[in-house]
């Protein structure tokens, strides 16, 4: 239960006070009316006595009476019998009282925190207290109890009366008539001889004071000094000038009326009409004798509403209302205008005098009397009961006693004691009375006694006995179930719950209150449920959910009782518990109700918020329900929207998934134009790929560094033209003036109902920033409006809509609302510092805050005849076109690529100036041929080319544009040679074109354009080359003795897989490029000069290489064999150098990763024997010969024969393939012809193994014949053979020594055998077992054993094996 | 017999609520939600005295005019609530107990599913089947 202003004791004391009636003459009433008050009202503020009174109980004990309050009411008579339920009029009144107390805006709230709930509740419930007070005051007087029967009557006569004493007599007779004639059932009187107190009212302003004193003296003699009083008031004349500030104690007692008047203005029409009815009833009747007029009143609908008269509050209320209309001059607020502070004191003194001198002695006397009566009667109570039983009238529910029944006398005494706060005595009396009533089965009486017994037990000071709550329960039950008197039951419950609450028994109080809710009164149920809810939250372990649930029940009842404001408040409080906890169904229900109530109260904003909440939540509702919610929302939204103009309100639907918003800077690109194919650049269709963007960024960095002479500026930012959630959005993006910005939004419709979006447009704001881009940008700034109509976002779908504007409109059937949705993009969650990790923080995201920069050049790139499929190594010529489509000239055109060896623009010096002709390109060779065919045949031609001619900085190529710049609108076409990648498969090749403005912009230093192509490379030729030292001195070499010449073997295999495509390959030319070597002669195995290879064929080409006489370290010697093509020029040379570049780059990479040890080994001067060795080894093995094989392929495609050309590169860096040997070794097999194999079916072949030490050091050699080589080469040879004789040799080789060993091999079967199985281990003698190097020859030494004793030794390459 | 079966997460949000389709679903949501107060009360009352040897079955939480609400709390503080029609007097405490045990077993199976993300609403067909069984068999 909510907190009350009063304590429980105060509350109960105030609920039961002695009632005093006022009967005044007309003249007296006129006097008091000067103050805008009736006499009873005049007294009301002073009815609470501050001083203590005393009373003697029957045992002559002195009892103090503290804080006694008396209730003074005008005497109103009626014939109405007390009803068992609240009459409609009373109900109306109560409901208005409740209505008038609305929760204030700034009302005191308390934060309740339990578990994970933290609620904000209103602490007090003034509407409930007002209801309770009014309810208790308006209790109809009942026969079974005397508490609200009149105990005394004030007879008031004015001193201006001609004969006041006569008037007193008249009034006294009137009172007697009312009490004893039996005409009126109401009011009821406590005791037959009611205390009459005579009051002479003297108006100081008009009456004669002396005369009044005389009359008073007369009265004293007549009625005794304690039975009369002279009250002097109205010391002041009313004048508007004298506006002294005199405290107005009345207003707080009468304030409610004026409040109610104000409230009434707001209540809806039906309520107003009921009020009017009420008012018209009341206006006609202040004063006695009105009951009859009421009963015939034409507007009177319900006769029982005559009980209105008993409601003093109504009475007052009506009178003030009537008076207001009578005296419009007097404001309703100016009470007691004629009273000075002295008069106030007079009144106070009067009330005190009356209470202590008149009332209390009267009560004391009566208690004593009753006590005396009680004693003898209680002696023969049993026999009496039998006798008097006849006198007990049985009524419908139980028993009704005649007024003078002894049981009632006890009750009467108890009530008297209770009223004068003698609770001990009261309790014992109640207890006795209860027993008596129960014996008689007088249930109503018994319940009343029980109730009061419990209350007085509670109020006993010092609490000698615990509060008997079961008394209360029984009483309530009896009232409700036996007597069917809900009013009494309710009173009892209110008292009991209040007491329980004060004792901390909240759950009992709540149970009591909930039990009292019923169908017959919504208002009561609502209030009690609310109080029960407060009980739950005030429990030691607060029951939050019960609180919320009962709040909702209360809200429901409030709304049924038309107390929508209270209903709204209840729902709002309950909402705090249900909010965001997954109870979506309940949440939706509450929100919906809140929305409806808010809307009816004109709080459309709140209504919109509530409905919005329903839609935003992930709803579990059905589609129809959702549609209903949506309709309701749209209706409310529309009505709110209709009121306001200007900024559009926000729409909750559809969801904008703001993090997936993508922003694209750049204009719509032409994708293809005829044969031209535009650079792919960036588009919204592309998915973001972290690796890709890193790659582009790296490329851009290369470009920027090459543009800035190798330095990457500190403020380098990779240019991003499409921003999404994964890109770096910390810096505002840069957009160029007059170029469009495309925003892609992703909408999601969470409902099961489809939404129609139409007329979407993007709202934007432009702030001119003086520092960055003054003035200029604004002029060019234009965002064209593009509207998307009727974009249907069907149920629970994701939809991406690209649009330039965003201002939404939602339509559902006929309902269309217009609203806005803000784009708020939150950056990624920060997770770097400790604070970031502990809290949830998000970074900035400036995707949507572009900075507009001055105009920049804009380039488009088109490709012509760009192939999609190439053979490995195929050379193709294409063209590329650069267009400057902007109004600014561009320069510094560069390109970087992930595959710089894929394409070339040709070197500056050797670029053939041929216009691109698309027609003849098919059969036109990409190569440049010699004008005159030189000597055909085996003799090579030589050409010296400087490497620098082709040198390019790594990866980045300057594009040779004429003049270095492109003027606005200008376009240029350049030839582009492409070479198929060496590896088969699909290759993604990325180009990044770089250009910059002629005038350096402050914001954007450069711009880039991306292009991605996919090239499908298919296999063409497999070229393997190996070089071996030739043992025999070359016949031509005369002058160079140091080098003995080298044999170069080139294995070419057609590995093309396509069946029909490529018919055959021709090896057109073999070129070499080296600093030290040149291809000398082509040793033709066949006479055919042109080497043809059809599918899966293989050929071996053999060349002899020689060191040229003069060695220039700078320039490369180009030698050509089968010369037709100038391989040293573009494009052949370009590609060759590209390949070399990339491969050396890779090598450098590898080297840099290895430790410095190996480096120092190489760089140390050849001084010691160890290092000497290595240098010797290196010298022996270094070859550095690059072979270029140029081929032609004949391809049939669409019944047309095409000739494709290509080139393959092989780099020979050292002799053989594995170049790690310490000791070079030559194995020489002497060819032997085996004799008779057929005789013994064994064939013994002598084999000579020649070991030669090329180094200057001593070498230990171990030859192990038993070693089984498991290399793949030996497995190729089927069958096995064994070495016979000695199988292991240990030798030492001296300087440059050559040793021959004769071995014997034994063959069992015919076949081809590899004799190269012995393992030869060698190490320098000085280095003890540090490195025994295995000398395994790579190339096999083959021997063919033929069955028919004819032995043929076929060694495919040579007899020499060189490592 | 059961007219509503609910599984409530430790943090007191519903993992699963199903009620007899003929009746107002919202009402059961409110009933179940309110019953959590009683559940918590019972847990706090019992938990201290008996330590970990706690009886999972909480018994009748509270009766309303039309329904009886029974509660059950697993050791991980997941709550099961079964609402039963008051008119059904044939239902014994033992039967309610066995219903809860069945429910618990099925819930454990749901939890064992590696694809179930703890804390998500239960959408398991098997679980749903068990629940329907309890609602159908009972009426």
How would you describe this structure to a colleague?
The complex is a heterodimer of chains A (1363) and B (139). By secondary structure, chain A is an alpha+beta fold. Chain A is built from 33 helices and 55 strands. In chain A, strands 14, 15, 25, 27, 29, 30, 33, 38, 40, 42, 43 and 44 form a twelve-stranded antiparallel β-sheet that branches. In chain A, α4 (88-100) packs across α8, α15 packs antiparallel against α16 (443-459) and α21 (544-560) runs antiparallel to α22 (564-578). With 139 residues, chain B is of the alpha+beta class. Chain B has a single domain (2-134), classed as Beta-Lactamase (2-Layer Sandwich), CATH 3.30.450. Chain B contains three helices and five strands; from the N terminus they run ββαβββαα. Classes of the chains: A alpha+beta (1363), B alpha+beta (139). The A-B interface holds A 115-116, 536, 541, 543-546, 548-549, 552, 578, 581-583, 585-586, 589 and B 9, 11-14, 25-26, 29-30, 33-38, 40-41, 44.
Shape of chain A: elongated
**Secondary-structure class of chain A:** alpha+beta
Mean pLDDT, all residues of chain B: 83
What low-confidence regions of chain B span 5 or more consecutive residues with pLDDT below 50? none
Care to count the β-strands of chain B?
5
What is the CATH domain class of chain B?
Alpha Beta
**Helix/strand order of chain B, N-terminal first:** EEHEEEHH
Pfam families (chain B): Sedlin_N
Main location (chain B): cytoplasm
InterPro entries (chain B): Longin-like_dom_sf, Sedlin, TRAPPC2L
GO biological process, one term (chain B): endoplasmic reticulum to Golgi vesicle-mediated transport
């Amino acid at each position: 239960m909510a907190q009350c202003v009063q304590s429980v004791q105060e509350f109960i004391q105030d609920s039961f006070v002695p009632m005093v009636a006022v009967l005044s003459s007309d003249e007296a009433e006129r006097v008091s009316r000067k103050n805008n008050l009736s006499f009873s009202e005049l007294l009301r503020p002073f009815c609470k006595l501050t001083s203590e009174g005393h009373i003697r109980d029957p045992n002559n004990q002195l009892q103090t009476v503290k804080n006694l309050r008396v209730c003074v009411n005008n005497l109103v008579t009626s014939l109405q019998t007390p009803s068992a339920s609240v009459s409609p009029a009373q109900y109306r009144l109560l409901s208005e009282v409740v209505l008038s107390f609305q929760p204030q805006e700034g009302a005191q709230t308390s934060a309740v925190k339990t578990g994970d709930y933290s609620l904000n509740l209103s602490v007090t419930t003034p509407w409930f207290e007002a209801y309770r007070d009014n309810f208790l005051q308006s209790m109809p007087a009942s026969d079974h109890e005397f508490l609200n029967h009149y105990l005394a009557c004030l007879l008031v006569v004015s001193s201006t009366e001609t004969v006041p004493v006569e008037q007193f007599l008249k009034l006294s007779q009137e009172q007697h008539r009312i009490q004893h004639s039996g005409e009126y059932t109401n009011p009821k009187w406590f005791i037959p001889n009611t205390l009459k107190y005579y009051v002479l009212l003297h108006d100081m302003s008009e009456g004669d004071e002396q005369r009044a004193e005389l009359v008073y003296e007369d009265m004293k003699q007549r009625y005794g000094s304690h039975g009369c009083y002279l009250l002097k008031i109205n010391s002041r004349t009313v004048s508007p000038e004298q506006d002294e500030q005199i405290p107005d104690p009345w207003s707080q007692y009468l304030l409610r009326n004026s409040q109610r008047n104000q409230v009434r203005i707001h209540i809806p029409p039906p309520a107003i009409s009921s009020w009017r009815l009420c008012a018209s009833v009341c206006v006609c009747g202040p004063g006695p004798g009105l009951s009859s007029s009421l009963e015939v009143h034409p507007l009177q609908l319900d006769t029982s509403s005559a009980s209105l008269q008993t409601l003093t509050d109504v009475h007052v209320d009506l009178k003030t209302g009537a008076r207001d209309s009578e005296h419009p001059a007097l404001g309703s607020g100016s009470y007691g205008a004629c009273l000075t502070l002295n008069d106030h004191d007079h009144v106070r003194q009067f009330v005190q005098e009356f209470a202590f001198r008149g009332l209390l002695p009267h009560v004391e006397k009566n208690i004593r009397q009753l006590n005396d009566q009680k004693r003898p009667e209680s002696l023969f109570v049993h026999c009496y009961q039998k006798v008097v039983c006849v006198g007990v009238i049985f009524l419908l529910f139980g028993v009704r006693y005649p007024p003078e029944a002894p049981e009632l006398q006890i009750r009467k005494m108890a009530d008297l004691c209770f009223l004068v706060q003698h609770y001990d005595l009261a309790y014992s009396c109640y207890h006795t009375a209860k027993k008596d009533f129960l014996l008689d089965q007088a249930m109503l009486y018994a319940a009343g006694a029980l109730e009061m017994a419990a209350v007085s037990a509670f109020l006993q000071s010092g609490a000698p006995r615990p509060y008997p709550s079961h008394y209360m329960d029984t009483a309530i039950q009896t009232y409700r179930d036996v007597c069917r008197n809900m009013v009494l039951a309710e009173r009892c419950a209110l008292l009991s719950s209040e007491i329980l609450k004060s004792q901390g028994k909240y759950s009992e109080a709540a149970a009591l209150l909930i039990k009292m809710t019923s169908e017959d009164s919504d208002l009561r149920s609502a209030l009690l449920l609310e109080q029960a809810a407060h009980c739950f939250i005030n429990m030691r372990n607060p029951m939050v959910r019960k609180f919320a649930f009962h709040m909702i029940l209360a809200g429901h009842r409030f709304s049924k009782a038309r107390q929508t404001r209270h209903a709204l408040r209840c729902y709002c409080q309950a909402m705090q518990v249900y909010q965001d906890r997954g109870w979506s169904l309940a949440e939706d229900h509450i929100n919906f109700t809140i929305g409806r109530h808010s809307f009816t109260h004109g709080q459309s904003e709140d209504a919109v918020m509530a409905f919005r909440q329903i839609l935003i939540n992930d709803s579990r509702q059905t589609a129809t329900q959702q549609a209903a919610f949506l309709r309701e929302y749209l209706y409310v939204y529309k009505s709110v929207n209709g009121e306001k103009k200007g900024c559009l309100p926000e729409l909750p639907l559809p969801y904008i998934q703001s993090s997936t918003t993508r922003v694209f800077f750049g204009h719509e690109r032409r994708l293809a134009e005829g044969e031209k194919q535009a650079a792919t650049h960036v588009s919204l269709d592309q998915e973001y790929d972290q690796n890709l963007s890193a790659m582009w960024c790296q490329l851009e960095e290369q470009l920027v560094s090459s543009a800035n002479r190798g330095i990457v500026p500190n403020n380098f930012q990779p240019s991003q033209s499409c921003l999404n959630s994964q890109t770096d959005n910390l810096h505002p993006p840069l957009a160029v003036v007059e170029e469009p910005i495309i925003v892609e939004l992703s909408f999601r419709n969470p409902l099961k109902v489809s939404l129609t979006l139409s007329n979407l447009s993007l709202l934007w704001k432009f702030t001119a920033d003086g520092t960055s881009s003054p003035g200029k940008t604004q002029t060019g700034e234009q965002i064209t409006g593009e509207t998307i109509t009727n974009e249907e976002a069907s149920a629970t779908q994701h939809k991406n809509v690209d649009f330039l504007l965003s201002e939404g409109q939602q339509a559902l059937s006929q309902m269309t609302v217009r609203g806005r949705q803000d784009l708020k993009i939150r950056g990624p969650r920060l997770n770097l510092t400790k604070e970031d990790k502990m809290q949830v923080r998000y970074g900035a995201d400036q995707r949507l805050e572009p900075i507009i920069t001055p105009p920049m050049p804009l380039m488009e790139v088109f490709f012509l005849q760009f192939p999609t499929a190439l053979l490995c190594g195929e050379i193709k010529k294409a063209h590329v076109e650069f267009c400057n489509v902007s109004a600014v000239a561009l320069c510094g055109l560069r390109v970087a690529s992930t595959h710089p060896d894929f394409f070339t623009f040709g070197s500056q010096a050797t670029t053939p100036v041929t216009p691109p002709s698309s027609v003849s390109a098919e059969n036109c060779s990409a190569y440049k041929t010699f004008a005159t065919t030189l000597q055909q045949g085996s003799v090579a031609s030589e050409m010296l080319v400087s490497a620098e001619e082709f040198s390019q900085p790594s990866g980045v190529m300057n594009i040779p544009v004429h003049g270095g710049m492109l003027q606005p609108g200008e376009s240029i076409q350049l030839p582009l040679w492409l070479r198929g990648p060496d590896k088969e498969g699909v290759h993604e090749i990325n180009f990044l074109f770089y250009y910059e403005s002629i005038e350096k912009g402050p914001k954007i230093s450069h711009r880039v354009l991306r292009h991605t192509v996919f090239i499908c490379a298919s296999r063409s030729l497999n070229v393997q080359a190996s070089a071996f030292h030739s043992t025999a001195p070359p016949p031509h070499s005369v002058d160079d003795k140091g080098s003995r010449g080298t044999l170069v073997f080139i294995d070419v295999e057609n590995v093309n897989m396509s069946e029909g495509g490529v018919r055959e390959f021709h090896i057109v030319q073999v070129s070499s490029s080296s600093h030290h070597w040149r291809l000398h002669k082509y040793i033709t195995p066949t006479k055919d000069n042109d080497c043809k290879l059809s599918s899966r064929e293989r050929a071996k080409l053999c060349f002899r290489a020689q060191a040229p006489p003069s060695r220039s370290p700078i320039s490369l010697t180009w030698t050509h064999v089968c010369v037709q093509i100038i391989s040293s020029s573009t494009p052949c040379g370009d590609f060759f150098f590209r390949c070399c570049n990339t491969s050396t780059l890779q090598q450098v990479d590898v080297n840099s990763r290895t430790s410095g040890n190996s480096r120092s080994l190489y760089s140390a001067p050849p001084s010691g024997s160890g290092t000497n060795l290595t240098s010797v080894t290196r010298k022996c093995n270094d070859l550095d010969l690059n072979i270029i094989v140029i081929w032609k392929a004949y391809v049939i495609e669409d019944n047309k024969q095409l000739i494709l050309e290509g080139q393959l590169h092989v780099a020979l860096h050292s002799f053989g393939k594995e170049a790690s040997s310490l000791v070079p070794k030559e194995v020489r097999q002497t060819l032997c012809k085996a004799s008779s194999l057929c005789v013994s079916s064994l064939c013994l072949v002598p084999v000579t193994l020649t070991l030669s030490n090329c180094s200057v050091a001593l070498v230990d050699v171990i030859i192990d014949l038993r070693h089984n080589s498991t290399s793949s080469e030996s497995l190729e040879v089927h069958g096995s053979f064994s070495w016979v004789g000695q199988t292991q040799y240990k030798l030492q080789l001296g300087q440059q020594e050559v040793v021959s060993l004769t071995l014997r091999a034994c063959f069992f079967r015919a076949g081809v055998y590899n004799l190269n199985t012995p393992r030869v281990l060698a190490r320098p003698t000085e280095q003890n077992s540090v490195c025994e190097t295995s000398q395994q020859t790579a190339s096999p030494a083959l021997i063919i054993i033929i069955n028919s004793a004819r032995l043929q030794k076929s060694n495919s390459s040579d007899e020499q094996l060189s490592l | 017999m059961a007219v509503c079966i609910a599984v409530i997460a430790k943090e007191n949000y519903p993992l699963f609520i199903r009620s007899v389709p003929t009746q107002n679903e919202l009402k059961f949501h409110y009933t179940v939600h309110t019953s959590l107060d009683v559940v918590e009360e019972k847990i706090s009352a019992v938990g201290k005295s008996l330590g970990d040897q706690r009886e999972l079955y909480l018994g009748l939480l509270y009766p309303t005019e039309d329904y009886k609400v029974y509660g059950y709390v697993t050791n991980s503080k997941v709550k099961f609530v079964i609402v039963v029609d008051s008119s059904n007097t044939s239902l014994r405490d033992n039967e309610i107990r066995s219903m809860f045990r069945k429910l618990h077993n099925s819930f454990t199976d749901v939890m064992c599913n590696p694809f179930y993300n703890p804390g998500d609403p239960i959408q398991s067909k098997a679980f749903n089947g068990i629940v329907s069984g309890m609602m159908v068999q009972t009426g």
